[in-house]
Here is the input.
Amino acid sequence: MDPRGKVALITGGARIGQVVAQSLAARGCGLALTYRDSRTAAEATADLARKAGVATLVVHADATEEAQIRAAVQATAQTLGRLDILINMASTYVRTLEPAAADWAAAIDANARSAFLFSIHAAPVMRASGGGRIINMSDWLVISGRPRYKGYTPYFASKAAVAALTESMALDFAPDILVNSIAPGPILAPPDLTSEELAEVMEATPLARWGGAEEIAKAVMFLIETDFVTGESIRVDGGRHLA
Here is the structure.
């Protein structure tokens, strides 16, 4: 699929999402950007997209609330005229050393249920435009089958659910909607990482560096442009899974 003239809905548009949005805008793709708390970031991204000459919509939507998800999809179709690409980037990454039921529910809702709900509401709109692409965000640890770090059980399980959801929806939505996921590794360093921890990550990564948000944007573009890849989870981790 050529993204020019198409419309993409991006959830969770801060940090990496901003770079993905800018990459799509540069290729002439209209944008609908949802946000829950980061309205300032979403508006800043929208301003840059408009300067690139593409139609842009910013809409508030809590990715755990189905009514708001449905409304965001409808607003995209009504305002921008179509919906061709859904990029489910809304996600949480929380450590839970002594997890409770609330931690499980929060992780599943934010990371897996949100992708499911956006997808089932977006799919009929995509089909009305002739088909589309859905791209989810999993995790390199899940795709590698390696729960290496203690204290992340709800997070790990939720991202494993995203990978399974991707495969199942790829089957259900074929042949006109392709569904894939990206499994990031060391892309952007968390702001609270110490210099020693940063060094440890680079030492454990064969390419010896953090990837940067641009690498996720490149993977997104590949999964939009391909016409024969579906049900896949692609690691973008600098070879981290090999160490």
In short: The longest strand covers residues 177-184.
